[in-house]
Fold these 3 entries.
Entry 1:
Amino acid sequence: MRKASVDRVTKETEISVSLNLDGTGQYDVSTGIGFLDHMLEQFSRHSLIDLTVRAKGDIHIDFHHTVEDTGLAIGMALTKALGDRKGIRRYGSQVIVMDETSTEVSLDLSNRPYLVWKVAFTRDKLGDFDTELFKEWYAALAQTGGITLHVANRYGENNHHIIETCYKALARALRQAVEIDPRAVDAVPSTKGVLGGSL
């Protein structure tokens, strides 16, 4: 089983993450931010990655540090669980629709972090959550998860639907990418022979 746990502690946040890439989508998430919890639950359920997150942060100031650092910690755990990335399919792509909204996520577990974010919101907040923080979470995940990550909302009107399709499409694409390819179980999916380190 490809499992990992990470504890990340700074003066701003204390975050513990445990995940199992070969899980069934079980989750136990508590960040102190209700909307983030909801999105991480969607992420776990649709990726089939079992996920436990405990986060304490300076949310009395704002949500920025907790949101970003949770993305960093999940990415760190993902990298740890993937190890040398041998046998994985590496690539994933998914289009998810929700009512009037359609979003596409494509990714490469290349260990070359890069985010392309083509998502626009018509509101600054969803409840008390600043919508600009979603990009920060995705950038943090890509950075420590070693993911080339492209997120594009194709169309939509409802801001909740837009971000929920982003998380569900990410989850489904990641589910494809981390899956072990039975035809190449012992092979790193690169002509370089390595995914990670200096490419």
Entry 2:
Amino acid sequence: MSNTEHIVQFFRSDEEYVRAAGYFLQEGLEAGETCVAVATAEHHLQLDRHLLAVGLDPNMLSAEYRYVPLQAEQMLATFLDARTGIDQERFHRQFNLLISQASSRGQPVRIFGEMVSLLADQGRSAAAIQLEELWNELSRQHHFSLFCSYKVSPFTENPRYRKLLHSIHSHVVCEGA
């Protein structure tokens, strides 16, 4: 996997989500990469179970700063204002720091995130698209692989947004969902 990929997955069930996201993280951890998971608390529990099932200890990996689990809702709150939307400067400041720290081990960085899905679930379609574009901006300053996920919803099935999501990402996984 190159360091310039921006992948999206559309999923119908948590089982699909955990399988794909878990494998993405597992593959990176087994390759010695630093992996960041920006997920909901429930999905972190499922991802931890997946990692444990394949012989990876998320607590040990976290202590070694090889696995960085972050809460999606809390991360969104660092750069999203309910009235004014996404603060681009705060986003860049927050994630420039995070990626700089994650890459300090000298290994490639992988990021799994579902903040965009949370925005879409809240009916904030424009903010979800804006956040995707901010990640692409960030990829011009840092090398990392990003795997985004969306629950299948009216947002992801809307032809206009589906086309935008395809154009923003370098790869689409589970297209049939």
Entry 3:
Amino acid sequence: MRTKIRIAMVEDHPVVREGLRVLLDLEPDMELVGEAGSATSALALIQRIPVDVLLLDLVLGEEDGIDLIPAIRKAAPETRILALSSFTDPARMARLASAGADGFLPKTVDPSHLLAAIRQVAAGRVVFDRTMVRALQAPDAEEAKRLAQLTPREAEILRQLTKGLSNKEIASQLQISERTVKVHLQHIFDKLGVQDRTSAAVLAIRHGWM
């Protein structure tokens, strides 16, 4: 049984890559299995090597890392994506929230927090920086109507999701099966018009669901 988290990074700055490499090498439960500096090389890497968590810089020279997320999802659906960004403008954050990443953090994040986020994402949790969430555009009335359509149980599960809990942890908290959690999550996604856990959690937080 594999005990280490297999990590790959997509970062076009050699100095940043070196810093991340040194940081990850010190962790006994983490293994850096690959590096890429462009979208093309990132896709080739993901298709060649099994990766648990991909650290994705959202600015890759002239390329936009957000545009890469759907392609990674298609090529390696089991790989979890933790996005790192230097930007918090509302339009960009809105695109990121709906792109399908499993988490996003500012590149200024403390190293200990980054390591903790990697472990959380690898365990199936959703991780996001609340300052970046607050940079999103203000919630609208249509979103509020969608949230109002949720059943009490769905609302309860969504609130657990905003805490970053995995399906297993939600099931344990609510004393239901993981399969039941998955069924409820799909209903939540359908009602909110989103595709994934991160988008659902971000939408809820924007409306004050904590």
